[in-house]
Amino acid sequence: MTVPSDIAIAQAAKMQPIVDVAKKLGLSEDDLELYGRYKAKVVPGVLKRLRSKPDGKLVLVTAITPTPAGEGKTTTSVGLAQGLAYIGKKACVALREPSLGPSFGVKGGAAGGGYSQVVPMEDINLHFTGDLHAITTAHNLCAAMLDNHIQQGNELGIDPRRIVFRRVMDLNERALRKVIIGLGGRTEGVPRESGFDITVASEVMAILCLAVDLSDLKARLSEIVLGYTHEGKAVTVADLGAAGSMAVLLKDAINPNLVQTLEGVPAFIHGGPFANIAHGCNSVQATKLGLKLADYMVTEAGFGADLGAEKFLDIKCRVAELKPSAVVLVATVRALKMHGGKKKTELTGEDLKALEAGIPNLEKHIENLKKFGLPVVVAINRFPLDTEAELALVEKKCAELGANFSLSEVWEKGGEGGADLARKVVAACEQSSELKTIYDPKMSPKEKIGAVAREIYGADGVDYSPQAEKDLELIHELGRDDLLICMAKTQYSLSDDAAKIGRPKGFRVMVREVRLSAGAGFLIPVTGAIMTMPGLPKKPAALSIDIDANGKITGLF
Asked: Does the annotation mark 303 as catalytic?
């Protein structure tokens, strides 16, 4: 039997009008700004109106350390929301918006898969409601105003050699990582070295997702540090006078987007910061809306639990005063065997030895989530070639670590395939829990970085390059030691070395530099070979994407 592709399943779906989907949450058409028949933004003021309403249960979906075998975190998030609706619960899901970079690069889109997708899938994976374009434009407006200020006399005394605010675009483009701008003579600007980051790495994106309203957004934008004067004083967006214009460009983008799953479950998709560079969570506004409007609000955090989940719990939950009731940890037998040393081409047969060798990665993530004081449900995405012996081994290990275990078949069966997971999540949400965080913001930056490295990654300690030491000294002089920590680290290992799979031990983390994101409210210690502008692979997904004369898209996944 030929299994239909994700895009074929999505294109065959019969979507409900978005006004009908909104009614399931108690929203009227007046609460929406319609973007056609199947997409809408929730207008400002709805969240304020709901402020006195009690919150539903918040469920975080995360995963083991990613491998090329795939884990299916977004698919599980969508499937769990559908599973909750299937067993009669009022549920919704909140996800990040996909970036065009991965969509046309190697990773593909981020709308789920199989019969657990959000739709309209093509719109969501492409331009959607224009949020990422608005963020790109607001960011680049500020960059243009900055260079114009220097060209027009530089009243702020900005040192062109110490500008830290680069430009952004929402595509993978390695040729623009480092550029020289301002060439061509006196009328063409002041020559200096600069570069491009991908839009989802922009501090403007991080701020949009943490802002509680338009006023908070504008205040946070004002605090972005653009560079430094010749005397070493920080120059901010407020100093440049750009916050108002940036906020104007973001006035619609800040409003959460509402769409639906294949089974008509309401889905908020809003904001898309990367989790290996930024905090990797959808917007605070979308999360809070879901909590006010549904009994169960499912959300995900990017990459593995050492990145997205840690940042969700240590950053987003602090900023937004959120209290998750349970965590779902997604894994596959295939991925665990890769952590046990198997190659992607060697995953078809039963191999309990490789699985046993790979399970310590799962164990470490369970242990970490338990440190946060939250009940954990392990969701295993079942593949046809998974054997009963392999599944039994994973279930046994989960039981030993105090985590519930569920076989998830949401890719193939949608909500019905997530019913068992949904029931176990509901039970987990009824357990008593109290969110604990890994560090106190009053600790020094090195103490906070060390706490994350030791407690979450399992490192023996942290080393700092001379540049990182200088960065921390400047941050101290600026009085920003109290900011939270947002580690920039490879997603492919618990360590800062992508080659160290499984559960590495006996390693130290090397911090190369520490970036100040004052508007977002955190410091970014950069480890390993992290890049803020990805490149395209030899055969990018863009080569397979096409559209026919009737407007039908193919190759998008």
From this structure: yes
pLDDT per position as a tens digit, 5-30? 888 888 898 999 999 999 999 999 99
User: Is 229 among the residues known to form the active site?
Assistant: no
- Known catalytic residue: 75? yes
Could you give the CA distance from residue 270 to residue 243 in angstroms, rounded to a whole number?
21
Q: Establish whether 73 is a catalytic residue.
A: yes
Q: pTM of this prediction?
A: 0.94
Exactly one of 40, 63, 201, 275 is catalytic; which is it? 275
3-state secondary structure of 427: helix
Our answer to whether residue 557 is catalytic in this structure is no
Q: Count CB atoms within 10 A of the CB of residue 195.
A: 15
**Whole-number Å distance between alpha carbons of 333 and 36:** 41
DSSP 308: I
Is residue 107 part of the annotated active site? The answer reads: yes
pLDDT for res 2? 63
The pairing of beta strand 40-42 with beta strand 257-261: antiparallel
Cis peptide before 120 (omega within 30 of 0): yes
Phi-psi sector, 551: left (phi>0), alpha (psi -120 to 50), beta: left
Assess whether 411 carries a catalytic annotation.
Answer: yes
Nearest in space to 66 (alpha carbons), one of 544, 491, 409, 549: 491
Which residues make beta-bridge pairs with 397? none
Distance (Å, rounded) from C-alpha 149 to C-alpha 402?
Answer: 59
- The residue among 321, 368, 272, 282 whose CA lies nearest residue 63 is 368
Choose, from 23, 107, 162, 454, the residue flagged as catalytic: 107
How far is it, in rounded angstroms, from Cα 521 to Cα 483?
6
Instruction: Report the share of the chain in percent with pLDDT over 70.
Output: 99
CB 556 within 8 A of CB 11: no
Structure tokens belonging to residue 184: 């061509």
Q: What is the arithmetic mean of pLDDT over 239-245?
A: 98
CA distance 257 to 33: 9
Q: Which residues contact 460 (CB under 8 A, 6 or more apart)?
A: 454, 506, 507, 508
The predicted-structure confidence for 263-306, as pLDDT tens digits, reads as follows 999 999 999 898 888 899 999 999 999 999 999 999 999 899 99
CB 523 within 8 A of CB 475: yes
Q: Which residue of the set 57, 89, 96, 489 is catalytic?
A: 96
